[in-house]
Amino acid sequence: xxxxxxxxxxxxxxxxxxxxxxxxxxxxxxxxxxxxxxxxxxxxxxxxxxxxxxxxxxxxxxxxxxxxxxxxxxxxxxxxxxxxxxxxxxxxxxxxxxxx
Length: 100
Description:
Elements: H1 2-40, H2 55-88
Helix pairs in contact: 1-2
């Protein structure tokens, strides 16, 4: 029975993972806008297609945004997985040796 539960858990986790990812993306977007405001004192970050912005500014914004999104995504994914593991006793993603 436990083996069946472990195989089905990733399917159950998928909808929760989707909701967590969406919420994490929204949180990361907000964090990036606030960070950009603190760094450059501008409401909106530069757009890559804005002809009035330089390479350095565009790449700085992309690097900051990427770092924030990666940290938030990892934190949200890990928190969701730990919550599932605490409530079910099984990790929501198959372990490396269990992948078929």
